[in-house]
Amino acid sequence: MAEAGYSEPMNNIGKIIELVDRHAIAEGATETPIEGLQLFRQSHHVERLPGVYDPSICVIVQGQKRAYLDGTTHIYDSEQYLCCTLPIPAEAEVIEASPEKPLLGLLLSLENRVMFETVLEMAALDRDSTSKAEVVPGLTVAKWDEDFAAELQRLLELLDDPVALNILGKGRLKELMFIILRGEAGGAFFQAL
Fold this sequence. Notes:
Helices cover 37% and strands 32% of the residues. By secondary structure, it is of the alpha+beta class. The chain has a 6-stranded antiparallel beta sheet with strand order 1-2-9-4-7-10. The chain has a 4-stranded antiparallel beta sheet with strand order 3-8-5-6, with no helix packed on it. A hairpin with a 2-residue loop joins strand 5 (64-69) and strand 6. The protein is globular. The protein starts with 9 loop residues before the first helix and ends with a helix.
């Protein structure tokens, strides 16, 4: 049972799924007005295929994917998200998707100014986080937590309000990146600098 004042990440997942489902308007990737953010929908399983992962955060909100790198399998879904800190050749497959319940998610590029500057600022200001860096740069997964789910929802809510998006968009991107850097995958970003 959750303590008073504490909300499980899954409390946010319903709203996050609804936002992605509504804005991921077609099969495949959908561009958004938020810099570096794409939403995606996949209604069928996709066999294991090679590709190159660019520096990004990949979040699955419904369904499940697997990525394979150097003999390691990374599973990501609504409980853990994938972080790629360097361009990496890897293989991936969609293992849970159907027309009735499609794979839904988002891809947030780290090759934009707001995200890159946030990593540099954290590295300069938070020596405790950077000194605890034990994760090897490349591909890693990190668990969703309350703060990650809340910030992700706040960012996606901007898609419904163009005025708020123009005023708050960069700040919300920065807040989400801050939460990611303070989480399990933060060390991989600092080591990749």
